[in-house]
Amino acid sequence: MTSFPPSPLMGQMQHQPLLISSIIDYAARHYGATEIVSRRVEGDLHRYTYADCQRRARRLAGALAGLGVGMGERVATLAWNGYRHLELYYGVSGSGAVLHTVNPRLHPEQIAYIVNHAEDQYLFFDLGFLPLIEAVAPHCPTVKAFVLMAGRGHMPAAGGPVRLLCYEDLLDAGDDDYTWPVFDENAAASLCYTSGTTGNPKGALYSHRSTVLHAYAAATPNGLNVSGADTVLPVVPMFHVNAWGLPYSVLLAGAKLVFPGPALDGKSLYELFEAEGVTFSAGVPTVWLGLVNYALQNGLKFSTFRRTVVGGAACPPALMDTLIDQLDVQAIHAWGMTEMSPLGTVSTLQAKHLRLPPGEQRKILYKQGHALFGVDMKIVDDDGRELPWDGIACGHLMVKGPWIIRAYFRDEGGEVLRDGWFPTGDVATIDADGYMQITDRSKDVIKSGGEWIGTIDLENIAMAHPAVLQAACIGLPHPKWDERPVLVVVTRPGAQVSREALLAHFQGKVAKFWIPDDVCFVDALPTGATGKVQKNKLREQFSGHRLDAPAKGK
Ligand code: AMP
Q1: Which of 157, 183, 204, 317 is the most exposed place for a label (fewest CB within 10 A)?
Q2: To the nearest whole percent, how much of the chain has pLDDT over 70?
Q3: Whether 180 is catalytic
Q4: Which stretch of DSSP H or E encloses residue 489?
């Protein structure tokens, strides 16, 4: 790690390490009666307060100590968003152990791989994942026991294939007088593996310091803008990148917290939003597509829901327009990645933009946004030369900051930084006001006759067509131009559009040579464990698709 020379005159402020346990202590002491409401896997709604959560998180930490889990040892979770998962967030990290959140949507072989790679000692799981646990357990020799996150009544009869413990029994045996240990703020706090489309997933190992700094930044008005007056429902899963830091930011802001459990369909979400007075949420575009469709089809409006952060994949402008114009929900575009804890940029307006006509403001809001304080970014060409911030030059996006990784867990993949900057793998422009716009993943960008074609723009245009529900653009080999764009489309239920009509819809919206060569209609797009479209799968699926018709002239 880089070390810095001491100054001859050091400041005289108290040295309090930035520890995750201090967030739950603050929340319990200053907002002790604030509610946490969870839809449980058991089906019912559970309610308690920050003070209850802190008490149980401390008991859990005591129980972990009783099980012999030491500082730095990894404890895994395989769970939905709920209060017990939140107790693990604080109980595990607060005790000095490392919370390893595992994505249950991964293939069992990948789950076994990362549990082994992390050398998890215990694995806590939600009711419903027992069959998955039974499948992976024989391949996870480091795990001493699997803990079912439920009460005794839900425990299966003894004698199953795995060593099971009961979460509520563990807590009963915990200690009310447990006090959090104080240690170096740079100690590891939690671990999340990337959803790597090629090769094995790699681990991002967050520290207490990085997590607390990220939580502060996320709560600020130019960030996610979380305040004590909000009721927040994180749809983003706690099993991937700490639900964008909301389980920390919401507690330090003192907001009411609502967890949806496994019920993430439009109807269940709508009902929970209304019943609990949710004001603010966050999730990937596909979740909002589901909720928006449900609300529009049933002629519903939200009574309290006013803002949502959309990120994890590009938010199509058509979706943002529907949220804002038809449902009165301010959609805030954000960008980040596992390696960045995850927040990098958020699209919010500056004072000078408030004078612009609404259409011009919207163009700014469509972008991925402005860097938060704590994140520095730049774009570079193939040779690493920095490119101008003019909104036109397009290059590889590089970032640095205290909540961005400097290496992967166990130094997997070797040196990752280039001159101190982390290469995001995204291709972007940055305008003169510092708003970044992603045009592609570098591995998805289409190179046609030596020129780059950004697929996100093409997908956004396609999704603005009323008959199109989802669209993905991929590059397929072409005898003359090396690669040409092909659009893969899912139409809205009951809607129809021809290939020709869809291609005509691009006329005048992009340079002629950007217009896709073909359109393929499918029933669904393949998505990975974090809900992103798997373009590598699409490229495989359409590898036999021939493009030899004359391409659009360049
Ligand atoms: P993950 O590490 O799984 O969270 O994925 C991070 C990647 O998702 C980024 O590097 C981007 O390629 C993509 N991503 C995240 N947010 C956005 C966004 N708002 N617009 C476009 N791509 C995004």
Answers
A1: 157
A2: 97
A3: no
A4: strand 482-491
